[in-house]
């Protein structure tokens, strides 16, 4: 009997039984969580040097070969940051990662101690306030380029805390006009920590937005990001070439079902944001067709005037400064290169808009969907040990019932 026939016989025997085998898949989800946190921080740290260059052309004027790793940084990029980083040549991340890591820390504790919503949001608020006091290295340190709405929101939280009896939802600063990307950039940890409960990840990410950003586009973007991250962590293992094994069959995987979930999540809070996500998905299909036609890598394509014009059109429409544009830009990049982290981050970093946030958010999704981070990526990244330790502290259930992951003819 061949191995394949023996496998089929085993599957038939198992499927006729009421008990499915228990396979420990925790390593697989753990790997996705580690890759997501690392890829986000790495993309953020790469994008720090291009965030305020307002055109793609300007980026290539400064970096003729582009920015693919920290080795492409100029001498100037290692200046204007605390000496600690210059001396150690550790590339710092920006406010995006600094706040996302604070959120991750609190959520891990929340899950462990079974905190409710108010307790969890209050602890995130305390954490933001405390870290803001770390003027040299905290999330609000000038070299991390913190956003105005985050600064304003956390200042309000600080003032509220000065009252003896703050109300139980004191953490909602009612900033209903704040619709920047400052909350969606730190929303993906909800999808990582609560990967077993997509609804909780969505609702709590939305509530957490209200600490600084209460506009419907910010709430919609946070909902989409949390749901998208959860779906990526729970997606099957992607094989070489973008294939997965589903129901025992080898099929080509596509992130479209995940993006549709993101759209639906956004729709609960803002229809316009959901429409932008759909448009971004269509732009990604157009971009993919252009790349297939030319046969270019993204590095080559961005030097090609016609693809560059398309790229600039997409990011002029979705520059990423506002929450709805940031989630649309993220979806565009994710849909374009779902299984290629290097190309994902390259697109994000070489955008005329909020490059660090786009790279960080798309890195979080692709890291969770497919992985792709390497030792060399993180060797010069600030706080890589802390990121690793946090990722390993996220609770992942083991021994879940599962069909054997063995392919067959379909
Ligand atoms: Mg930033």
Brief account:
This protein has 19 helices and 4 strands.
What does this structure look like?
- By secondary structure, the protein is mainly α.
- The chain has one domain (3-393): ADP-ribosylation/Crystallin J1 (ADP-ribosylglycohydrolase fold, Orthogonal Bundle), CATH 1.10.4080.
- The protein is built from 19 helices and 4 strands.
- The protein has a two-stranded antiparallel ribbon with strand order 1-4. A two-stranded antiparallel ribbon has the order 2-3.
- A hairpin with a 2-residue loop joins β2 and β3.
- α10 packs antiparallel against α11 and α11 (256-267) packs antiparallel against α12 (271-294).
- The longest helix is centred in the last third of the chain and has 24 residues, at 271-294.
- The chain is globular, with a radius of gyration of 21 Å.
- It starts with a helix and ends in a 9-residue tail after the last strand.
- The relative contact order is 0.18.
- Magnesium ion is lined by residues 94-96, 145, 356-357.
């Amino acid at each position: 009997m061949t191995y394949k026939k023996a496998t089929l016989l085993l599957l038939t025997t198992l499927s006729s039984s009421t008990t499915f085998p228990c396979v420990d898949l925790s390593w697989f989800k753990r790997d996705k969580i580690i890759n997501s946190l690392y890829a986000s921080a790495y993309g953020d740290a790469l994008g720090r040097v291009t965030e305020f260059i307002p055109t793609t052309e300007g980026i290539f004027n400064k970096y003729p070969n582009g920015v693919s790793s920290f080795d492409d940084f100029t001498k100037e990029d290692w200046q204007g940051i605390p000496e600690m980083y210059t001396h150690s040549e550790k590339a710092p991340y920006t406010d995006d990662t600094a706040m996302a890591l604070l959120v991750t820390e609190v959520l891990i504790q929340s899950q462990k101690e079974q905190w409710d919503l108010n307790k969890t949001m209050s602890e995130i608020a305390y954490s933001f306030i405390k870290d803001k006091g770390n003027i040299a290295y905290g999330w609000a340190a000038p070299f991390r380029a913190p956003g105005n709405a985050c600064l304003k929101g956390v200042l309000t939280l600080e003032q509220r805390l000065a009252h003896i009896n703050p109300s139980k939802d004191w953490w909602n600063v009612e900033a209903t006009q704040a619709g920047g990307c400052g909350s969606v950039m730190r929303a993906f940890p909800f999808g990582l920590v609560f990967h077993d409960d997509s609804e909780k990840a969505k609702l709590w990410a939305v509530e957490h937005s209200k600490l600084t950003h209460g506009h419907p586009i910010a709430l919609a973007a946070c909902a989409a990001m949390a749901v998208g991250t959860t779906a990526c962590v729970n997606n099957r293992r992607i094989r070489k070439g973008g294939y997965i094994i589903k129901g025992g069959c080898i099929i080509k995987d596509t992130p479209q079902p995940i993006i549709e979930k993101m759209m639906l999540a956004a729709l609960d809070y803002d229809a316009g944001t959901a429409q932008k996500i759909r448009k971004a998905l269509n732009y990604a299909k157009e971009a993919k067709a252009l790349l297939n036609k030319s046969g270019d890598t993204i590095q080559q394509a961005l030097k090609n005037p016609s693809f560059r014009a398309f790229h600039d059109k997409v990011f002029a429409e979705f520059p990423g400064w506002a929450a709805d544009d940031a989630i649309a830009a993220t979806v565009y990049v994710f849909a374009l290169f779902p299984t290629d982290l290097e190309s994902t981050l390259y697109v994000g970093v070489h955008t005329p808009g909020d490059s660090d946030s786009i790279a960080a958010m798309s890195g979080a999704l692709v890291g969770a969907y497919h992985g792709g981070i390497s030792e060399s990526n993180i060797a010069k990244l600030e706080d890589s040990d802390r990121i690793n330790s946090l990722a390993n502290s996220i609770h992942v259930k083991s021994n879940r019932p599962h069909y054997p992951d063995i392919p067959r003819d379909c």
